Amino acid sequence: MTTTALIGQDPGWLILVKGLFIFVFCVVCTLMAVWGERRIVARMQMRLGPNRVGKFGLLQALADGVKLALKEDLIPAAADKVVFIIAPIISATTCFMAFAVIPFTGKVTLFGHKTAMQLTDLPVSVLYILAIASIGVYGIVLAGWSSGSTYPLLGGLRSSAQVISYEVAMGLSLVAVFIYSGSMSTSEIVAAQHQWWFSVILFPSFAIYVISMVGETNRAPFDLAEAEGELVGGFHTEYSSLKFALFFLAEYVNIVAVSALATTLFMGGYHALPGLTFTESWLGGWFTLFWFVGKVVAFFFLFVWLRGTLPRLRYDQFMKFGWKVLIPTSLIWILVLATLRVMSQRAVSRMVVLGFSIGVVLLVVLVTTLYDRSTAKAKAAAVLPELPLPSFPVPALPGQSIPGESSVSQIEMVPELESHNG
Amino acid sequence: MLHTAFHLGLTVGRTATPEAVQFWILAPLAVIAALGILVVKKAVHSALLMAWVMVTLAIFYIAQDALFLGIVQIVVYTGAVMMLFLFILMLVGVDSSESFVENLKGQRIPAIIAALGLGGLIASLVGRATVAGPAVGLTAANADGNVQGLAKLLFTQYVWAFEVVSALLITAALGAMVLAHSQKVRSPFAQRDLSIARFRKSSLGDAAGLPASGVYARHNAVDVPALLPDGSPAPTSVSQTLRARGDIISSSSFALESIEEQED
Fold first, then answer.
1. Within a domain: residue A378?
2. Using CA atoms, how far apart are residues A41 and A44, in angstroms rounded to an integer?
3. How many CA atoms lie within 13 A of A272 on its CB side?
4. What is the DSSP string of A264-325?
5. What are the Cα distances from residue A201, in Å, to A195, A207, B45?
6. Is B27 exposed, middle or buried (0-12, 13-18, 19+ CB in 10 A)?
7. Per-residue pLDDT tens over the stretch A312-363
8. Which of A2, A93, A134 best tests the B interface by mutation, with the highest count of B CBs <10 A?
9. Could you tell me how far CA A24 lies from the centroid of its own chain?
10. Which residues in A have their CB inside 8 Å of a CB on B?
């Protein structure tokens, strides 16, 4: 029986239990993620990180949350009150909705019912996640606009442009997955990866997805919407107390959501690592949850690692990268992939397929070398404008001559000094 | 929208209860929001209500088994088109409210005619859907799956229409780019060039940046010039914009009184 048919038989109470599970999972993930991120970044910077509240500082995020909730809730006088309140609500509700179609486990038994830990499955699940993500942007954009001041507005505009641009690249990277699995439903995509993970056979798509998922969640090095050095706090500058907490929650739940999607689409979902498939039947199928969470945590570690390592991109470089590198690359990749797919379906001989692949590789190498050469030439040809050299306000060092001044005076000075000393 | 609403309303006796409940909750909200688009003052609020109407429409589509259409409606219209609208509205002004000045003279009469035409079109569609007998229904269309059925139609029967529309859209996009494009005569003067130019000047007085405002005065706001060592105000220490606006306070008004005056 397929997963779709299996979860279609769920009684109402079981659906409620699954909904509750998703909510609790996301909130616990957020609390652990905040703590984990601070500890890992601290480790990378040779510090200790929070280690006072609870064992290993595990309850630090909870304590911070309580403190945040008890702070004064400010609404600026210039703010558009209704939209100001709606914005964090939009952010915090949409981020949970993506989890409705994520398969957490394979077939399990829950309170005597045979089911799978997936709230629902649609024939267009992955598109549904994209749709939810695009509604989630409204939270950020409206927060920026309704605050009624400049920095939040700039942050909101930046983030909307960013998310829209990277959503295109993300959508294109998913097309390859759809072509290979023949479906847009998450459970079928996971089922299609029982032999080979898509991160292996569709590696370019996987790389593009991973880059664009960092852009999509406004995380370092793509955190231009809340660049501290430029925009104070970006779109949430004017927010405080629980409303700020909602944005904070949304950011971390979004990270978990894109990580879960990456796991589902490219890393085999809840399936065990290659060679360990016998573990999938342990604990009545519940052990698959361990594999799923493990992969999500690995992706989360990648997020933290990036934040600890890379400096923030400049805005124009970031946009150029999205539109001029990621999108064309994925378009070409899809074209090549679709050709290969049709070839394999038509049972074209191996030699033709091999010849085509080698031809594509050679073409890519040729184009990139030519491009590199032309940019190198352009760089060499660029000359600085000829301007008069300045006269430095500092005395020249021994052996150095100041342009514009006669070097004779320098030489004359030296014996004079020597005679003083003598 | 009207079509969907009518259709749902007429067949409500035959539809499943959850769908009817969902319809009677969402439809009034959608209609109120649609009216709100016309009534509210701020353009951004209109855009928001529009987004809400689009999302409710998508839910109606999904409730009627047109799953793909509903999701694409959200991705394309709410996520991309409406977001770009919002983007422009925000750039135009934080609190620009709708003006009632007619920018294009004599557009009202064609607009009314076009609206009447659209109304007639919708009425005829609703008529065809209700009078022409029972529809085939989406169950028949979705026999091989919603996405597959749609794909089959798009890439066989309607492939030319599809291609023509896409060519039209590409032409429109190219036209917009050509109209908005401006030829750059020289490469933009960036931070690096500015820095080089500062050091290539005959005087290196500004090499480390311009003096900060009000450094030696008793008042250190941005609108008070700094004092040079000889006691005269430094003209480059305040923004040229403030100077042009006349928003500059003389630093001499904050100067210490002379010692003789203090002793008196």
1. no
2. 5
3. 13
4. HHHS-TTPPPTT-GGGGGGGGGTHHHHHHHHHHHHHHHHHHHHHHHPPPPPHHHHHHIIIII
5. 11, 12, 47
6. middle
7. 888 888 888 888 888 998 998 999 888 888 888 888 888 888 898 899 899 9
8. A134
9. 23
10. 80, 83, 122-124, 127-128, 130-131, 133-135, 137-138, 141-142, 144-145, 148, 153, 156-157, 160-161, 164, 167, 184, 384-385, 387-393
Show the tokens assigned to A150: 């400049």
Residue matched to tokens 């969402």: B26
Q: Is the pLDDT of residue B255 over 80?
A: no
Q: Is B239 on the interface with A (CB under 8 A)?
A: no
Statement: residue A416 has pLDDT above 50? no
B123 membership: H or E segment, kind and range = helix B108-131
pLDDT in tens, A82-94: 999 999 999 999 9
Strand-pair partners of B233: B227
Helix locations, B132-190, DSSP H: 138-141, 146-155, 159-180
Assess whether pLDDT exceeds 80 at residue B254.
Answer: no
> B2-97+113-139 belongs to which CATH class?
mainly alpha
Q: Which of B141, B147, B138, B143 is nearest to B15 (CA)?
A: B138
Q: Do B74 and A388 touch (CB under 8 A)?
A: no
B67 and A153 in contact by Cβ < 8 A?
Answer: no
pLDDT in tens, B18-69: 888 888 999 999 999 999 988 888 888 888 899 999 999 999 988 887 888 8
Confidence of residue A404 (pLDDT cuts 50, 70, 90): low
A77-133 residue pLDDT tens: 888 889 999 999 999 999 999 899 999 888 888 888 888 888 888 888 999 998 998
> What pLDDT is stored for residue B101 in this prediction?
63
Across the A/B interface, how many CB contacts are shorter than 8 Å?
A: 91
The Cα B44–Cα B37 span in angstroms is 10
Q: Which residues make Cβ contacts (< 8 Å) with residue B147, sequence separation at least 6?
A: A123, A124, A184, B67, B68
Least confident piece of the model among A33-37, B22-26, B160-164, B192-196: B192-196
Task: Indicate the number of domains in chain A.
Answer: 1
CB A172 within 8 A of CB A85: no
In a domain, A60, yes or no: yes
Q: Is residue A418 part of a domain?
A: no
Q: Where are the domains of chain B?
A: 2-97+113-139, 144-175, 210-263
Closest chain B CA to residue A128? B71
- The number of angstroms, rounded, from the C-alpha of B26 to the middle of its chain's C-alpha atoms is 25
- The 3-state DSSP composition of chain B as helix, strand, coil percent (nearest 5) reads 65, 0, 35
Interface residue of B17, B44, B94 to substitute, partner A, most A CBs within 10 Å: B94
Name the residue among B45, B72, B201 with its Cβ closest to that of A390.
B201
In angstroms, the separation between the Cα of residue A149 and the nearest Cα of chain B is: 9
Residue type, A381: A
Residue A263 within any structural domain of the chain: yes
Residue predicted with more confidence, B222 or A33: A33
Kindly provide the b/e burial profile for residues B80-98, where b requires at least 16 CB atoms within 10 angstroms of the residue's own CB: eebbebbbebbeeebeeee
- Lowest average pLDDT, out of A40-44, A237-241, B196-200, goes to B196-200
Task: Check B200 against A390: CB less than 8 A apart.
Answer: yes
Measured in angstroms, the CA of A78 and the nearest CA of chain B are apart by 10
Contact B219, B254 (CB under 8 A): yes
Residue keyed to tokens 């601070």: A38
**Cβ contacts of A135 on chain B, cutoff 8 Å:** 55, 74, 78-79
Q: Do A124 and B68 touch (CB under 8 A)?
A: yes
